[in-house]
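Bit of a strange request maybe. I'm writing a small parser for structure token strings and I need a real example to test against, not something I typed by hand. Could someone generate the tokens for this chain?
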Amino acid sequence: MDKEKLLLVEDDVNFGFVLKSYLEMNDFEVELVSDGKDAVPAFMKKEYDLCVLDVMLPHVDGFTIAREFRKINKKIPIIFLTAKSLKDDVLEGFKAGADDYLTKPFDSDVLLVKIKAILRRNSGNKLTLEDKIKIGKFIFDTKLRTLTCTGESHRLTPREADLLKELILNKNTVLDRNEALRKIWGDDNYFNARSMDVYITKLRKYFTDDENIQINNVHGSGFILVVVES
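Reply from user aminoacidic:
Good idea to test on real output. This should exercise your parser:
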């Protein structure tokens, strides 16, 4: 079973390493970042289950980082760590997207309990995919990145496969275009958007043998994978 991944952003390097080691001892995979300006690039490199953010950071503060994280992933859980205990700061943290808030100094066991509680609460809503998924007449092998129908198989590129996974996870609902771009490409700029359109066209071509499968544009929003069950 894969370990749950945490992003820890803490500028006190000694404390950060101690906290990282403690969380790793409790079976988490932890990435430690010590400078605010490095937080968003680190966040975009991999998919995390939860982020722990110090508020007072060099170059970019934790509240600003949290808002940027929320633009990339609206649902990522965030816990703030701060030396500030003023009511206005606590409120600012929750406005920035905090799921919880700890004032320094704190007991690491308390942080661990909060992390586990949030992840447990979210686990019921977390969508995952099986290794092999049936889509109409097709079988999508997520590990081999193959799409097979009546003996004919297409090997998908990594981005084709990632895009198809996102469409499947949002099947019959709109996949937000910008959110998918940030998640798969790391940036929702014009050139990546054009690249996504090319991959959508390729996926549509693969599914032409099954009229019950359609990938439709939703103007101004994104795409929707429609599968009519026979």
